[in-house]
Request: fold
Amino acid sequence: MLTPEEFVQKAGLHFKDPQLARRALTHSSYVNENPEIQEDNERLEFLGDAALDFLIAAWIYRHYPEMDEGQLTRLRSALVRTEQLAAFAEEIQLGEAVLLGHGEESSGGRTRQALLCDAFESLMGALYIDSGLEAVAGFLEPKLPQAVSQAVEDESLMDGRSLLQIWAQAEKGETPRYRTIETSGPDHDREFIVEVSVGEQAAARGRGKSKQEAAQAAASEALRIIQKGGV
Reply:
């Protein structure tokens, strides 16, 4: 177990107002059992949620300039989901410092992902009030590249085009290029073949009833080839 003060120091954080950090670590169950405590961390959670959403959106906007709105949205969703924020909390041992009521403690609250996620959001909300958005960004942004890598490994979180975009920029310093190489069939039943290239190398082709569907198929095929070490 860590006191709030020990936690802040161990996590490499600095608060001008230590009471803000303590409030960020105060779960509602602790307030229920300690009436002298006037406020839990739920209002800070609300603020931290908004700060994280904005900062992560701004970071991926800067780092993936070729992603369209849909791809940006899917990647942001992967980075702000409960499981990912809980992982950030576990990384800094946040669960060991949260002030919990006895009931919540005995039921395993310190390792519950939803609780860890909420506590991390609260901590970021407190840091924002204490030191501003730049302080939150300075703490958060170094964690994001690894989080993106983990999101890429879990293909259920994003579509093939988004995953290929992230891989190509990280591994090749390139942006995938899509080219329609064949269109066939009558107007009411068209079929498209799209080729995707990474750098000078044609990676894969895909078929679909629309250019978008064919591009997704090409990206998925390219990812399959990549997993086999072919690109």
Remarks:
- The chain has two domains: 4-151, 173-227.
